[in-house]
């Protein structure tokens, strides 16, 4: 039997958060519903962040309320603090994610605090989530490069990843936020993280600015990772990482994994339909 690889779909959240034009709530719901039919086990639907910081995600609760939930699919949301966690749980998120950075510059620009402050801010979220039996994923951004501070040391990534794991994050997603990493640098970063956390708890989250994302996935597969974040149609970017392009396209990763003999459980025809709809949302403002 083919070995399974999980693709964690980012399109509705990481994909749409960077769109300049405000996308209608109904279109966001339609995208999630199309994705629900593709065979994903995990879809990141939205973010419960400050609407002043990311206006595109201001309708997070309406999107969560409007989607048609498919049994067996985990519908997840980003939560930067307790307020976000409470909003996400009230809206019915099955899983939440806290997000830290391996670089100080990005931490300050993205969530308005230092790395250490962010970890302290996440602790009560993890405590409450444990009581509520809500799984928490942890992101580490800027795992090789930061748009403000430049190159990031693998050890710095390992430290933040370990702190999130020790706090109780079930899975740590390692983000090449800028999409500038090469396979060698991803390899060096992973070696440092793998000294502290097993591959079964890690995910690769690669943006595709320089076109290396698929090779970075291959480098990560070689080191035992079996979960990758991707966005249908290659949607995305980050409002606080100027110039960063979309997440690696789900349909491209699914095709690569299929060629390599892995099983993603995804339906390529339905994926293509969802990708076409995702592209249609990218009209200029
Ligand atoms: P702050 O301004 O320091 O927060 O922002 P604050 O606690 O001082 O609150 C300011 C105002 O925001 C208050 O409202 C709060 O109530 C409100 P006011 O009293 O002024 O009317 N507020 C909230 N409202 C709704 N939901 C909340 C919330 N929290 C505060 N959860 C904060 C700090 C973290 C809130 C802000 O910086 C923020 O929301 N940042 C999010 C930025 C973001 O979403 N970035 C993109 C996602 S990260 C990413 O894309 C990377 C990733 O994909 C991985 C990778 O690629 O590397 C994950
Ligand atoms: Mg991202």
TrEMBL record:
Residues 5-272 form the Pyruvate carboxyltransferase domain. SUPFAM superfamilies: Aldolase. One of its GO terms (molecular function) is metal ion binding. One of its GO terms (biological process) is L-leucine catabolic process. Keywords: Lyase, Metal-binding. This is Hydroxymethylglutaryl-CoA lyase. It comes from the Bacteria. Belongs to the HMG-CoA lyase family. InterPro entries: Aldolase_TIM, HMGL, PYR_CT.
